[in-house]
Write a structure and sequence with these properties.
mainly alpha; AF4/FMR2; about 375 residues; AF4/FMR2_CHD; phosphoprotein; AFF3 protein
């Protein structure tokens, strides 16, 4: 370190300033060398360099000295780096809210590939996951693995819809998947004081799947439902006209001897039970319909019930989601909100991400 490059400290009682470029005697060099070096290592030694900016001759030599201002700046930068290291990495987790807690560090994002696969691949994956769930004893892990297997079955049914597989029905695949999910939900209770947040999150995700599966099942059978509805409306319209035909019944309500084609002959029990008449039969409450109409009505009820089940499960999922707002708000922000009109691909990825968070939160491998 060049002693001549150091500025001379100024005493408060002195009135004159020595030029930093003036030559110093050996005694003055010896006098200020140790004091300057000692003071320059102190944090508050910034006042020791008042004339650095006025000297261009020794600029190159002075730059090698640790400027106290730069020292304080370095401390400030280092302190900021320490704070940044303790903050969550928003670049890797752009979905994470500003009020991130240490628990959210486990909410990592899954990477999904867009490689097209056939239905057989998803069927094998679904069977593998289901066998893994069958071998488990712990109920929560068992239900979680069944839910993951159900997602592979959903992907299998979706692949059946996309590909020409006439031997297999996606409707049947979705129907069997519904039963598997409902069984998984029954394994672990989500109500009561012993229910954990992970229990409610798992069941809410399963209810979302059930709601969209029932809605998709209705969409697959919608054309049949419309056809059955038209046939049933036409039949009941004609049957009501036939029942109101005056040729079958007189004005007084007594039978004229020709029974209605839609009403069988009254039984003796109903005749005896009639009031105010001795031999006049009363209309029977039982109406016979053709077997074809009966089958149409049963099929129509089965298809339209899917809509009712869909809305019921959707409302139950909403109620559970309200109890876990942070979880589902983060999931919606990351994957995009899910609706009844979401695709099967969106449903699978949304649920897979949610189940991944549930698994990590429950410390399951």
């Amino acid at each position: 370190i060049s002693i001549s490059s150091l500025a001379i400290p100024i005493n408060k009682n002195e009135k004159m300033l020595r030029s930093p470029v003036s030559p110093l005697s050996d005694a003055s060099k010896h006098k200020y060398s140790s004091d300057d070096l000692t003071s320059s290592s102190r944090p508050n030694g910034s006042s020791l360099l008042p004339s650095i900016s006025s000297s261009k001759k020794h600029k190159g030599e002075i730059q090698s000295q640790p400027h106290p201002g730069d020292f304080n700046k370095a401390i400030h930068i280092n302190s900021e780096n320490v704070l940044l290291c303790n903050k969550p990495q928003f670049q890797t987790e752009p979905w994470s809210p500003l009020s991130t807690t240490p628990r959210d560090c486990r909410r990592t994002k899954l990477i999904f590939d867009d490689i097209p696969r056939n239905a057989d691949y998803f069927m094998q994956e679904a069977k593998r996951k289901k066998h893994k769930a069958d071998a488990m004893v712990e109920k929560f892990g068992k239900a979680l693995n069944y839910a993951e297997a159900a997602l592979s079955f959903i992907e299998c049914g979706n692949a059946m819809e996309q590909g020409p597989m006439e031997s297999k029905s996606p409707y049947t695949m979705y129907s069997e998947t519904v039963e598997l999910i409902r069984y998984a939900v029954r394994l672990k209770t989500h109500s009561g004081p012993n229910a954990t947040p992970e229990d409610k999150q798992l069941v809410a995700l399963c209810y979302r799947c059930l709601a969209l599966l029932y809605w998709r099942m209705f969409r697959l059978k919608r054309d049949h439902a419309v056809k059955y509805s038209k046939a049933l409306i036409e039949y009941f319209k004609n049957s009501s006209k036939a029942a109101q035909n005056p040729s079958s019944w007189g004005a007084s309500g007594k039978s004229t001897g020709t029974p209605s084609p839609m009403s069988p002959s009254p039984s003796p029990v109903s005749s005896v039970g009639s009031q105010g008449s001795t031999g006049a039969p009363s209309p029977s409450p039982i109406i016979s319909i053709p077997q074809r109409i009966h089958q149409m009505a049963a099929n129509h009820v089965s298809i339209t019930n899917s809509i009712l089940h869909s809305y019921d499960y959707w409302e139950m999922a909403d109620n559970l989601a309200k109890e876990n707002r942070d979880f589902f708000n983060d999931l919606d922000a990351l994957m995009g909100p899910i609706t009844l009109h979401s695709s099967m691909e969106h449903l699978v990825q949304y649920t897979q991400q949610g189940l991944h968070w549930v698994r990590n939160s429950a410390h399951l491998s």
